[in-house]
Every structure is written in structure tokens, then in C-alpha cells.
Design brief:
single chain, about 180 residues, alpha+beta, Peroxidase, domain 1, 4-stranded mixed sheet, 8 helices, about 15% strand
């Protein structure tokens, strides 16, 4: 789970944008995965780079020495930026955010839940409307869920757009419960 989503988003986006002009998004994501594995295998290295008692210049030297052979200059620059800004402790969150956000070519995942099969034209209309509303592209998945009774529910990250019959019935029930009878 990502603890600081805003920070992870900012650094992941900056890193991916930086790499898009040099090594490309796929290579950048692959390199981040490799960094995560490397740090998981070298816990003392991670602790040293997170330690505020160690001078930045010493941490830069560690990054250049340890990461020089197997990692690109883009990765080393990114790691040094995290060290300089005191954000190295968030490296796992940043890598996880980048993996989720950019693994599908920059498209986020969106789940369409429905109680019945949708034709491709209707899915395309939903896709177009959501992409226009959010200003980004999505990779859509469709799931059948009979408990919705009808309509559609869309889940994008933590956002739920619920146009299901079940939701309308629950809302109506809540209104009736809250209504006082004279």
C-alpha cells in the first residue's frame, strides 16, 4: 500500500517524464523494478541511504559506486535526487506508484462492473466519456456482477461511479428511512 500517494505520484511522474526522452518508459519501469529487488536484497544499503546522519556527499558516493555497474545514469540521478531531497525512505512507494500508473503505457486501470453483457459500442461510449471527464486514458476490464441488478458501476483506483439499480434502491431505501411520517 502506498503511504504517501501525492509524493509518490510527483516523483514517479518526474522520473518517467525524464526517462521518456532517453531510455523510454518500459526501460525506466524495468530499471525501477531492478532497483527495488536490489534494495530488498541489500537492506543495509537502503538503511544507509535513508540515514539522516550520513552526509549527502557520502550518499552520492555510495550511489555512484554501488549502482554504477548495473544501473543507467538516469537511475543514479534519480536516486541521488531522492537522497538530496530527503525522500529516499519513499523509494518503495514511488516505485509501486510508477508500476501501477505506467505499466500499461501510461493508462490507468478501470473496472466496469455490470449485471449483464455489454456490447462493444456501449463500452466504447463509457470509455470515451470517462477519458474525456478525467483527461486520461484507461485500460478497461469488464466484470459481471449480478448483485448490481442492472446499470453499471465503474471503479478507477479509489473512485467509484455507481449507476447501478442496486445503488438507486439503496438510496431510495435510505430516503424512506430518513423520512418522518406525520
Amino acid at each position: 500500500m502506498i503511504k504517501n500517494r501525492a509524493l509518490a505520484s510527483r516523483y514517479a511522474r518526474a522520473f518517467i517524464e525524464y526517462c521518456s526522452g532517453t531510455i523510454g518508459t518500459e526501460e525506466a519501469l524495468s530499471a525501477l523494478k531492478k532497483v527495488r529487488q536490489f534494495l530488498d536484497e541489500n537492506e543495509q544499503l537502503r538503511e544507509a541511504l535513508e540515514n539522516p546522519a550520513i552526509a549527502y556527499s557520502d550518499k552520492y558516493g555510495i550511489v555512484e559506486e554501488v549502482f554504477a555497474e548495473e544501473f543507467t545514469p538516469e537511475i543514479r540521478y534519480f536516486l541521488k535526487t531522492l537522497v538530496e531531497n530527503g525522500r529516499f525512505a519513499y523509494i518503495s512507494d514511488i516505485i509501486e506508484f510508477a508500476r501501477i500508473k505506467y505499466a500499461h503505457g501510461g493508462r490507468e486501470e478501470a473496472l466496469i462492473k455490470t449485471s449483464y453483457l455489454l456490447d462493444l459500442e456501449l463500452i466504447k461510449q463509457i470509455q470515451d466519456a470517462l477519458q474525456k471527464k478525467f483527461g486520461k486514458e484507461f485500460k478497461f476490464y469488464v466484470e459481471l456482477d449480478g448483485s448490481l441488478l442492472g446499470g453499471v458501476q465503474v471503479i478507477i483506483g479509489n473512485t467509484v461511479i455507481d449507476g447501478s439499480v442496486r445503488k438507486r434502491l439503496d438510496d431510495l431505501k435510505q430516503k424512506l428511512v430518513n423520512t418522518q411520517v406525520n
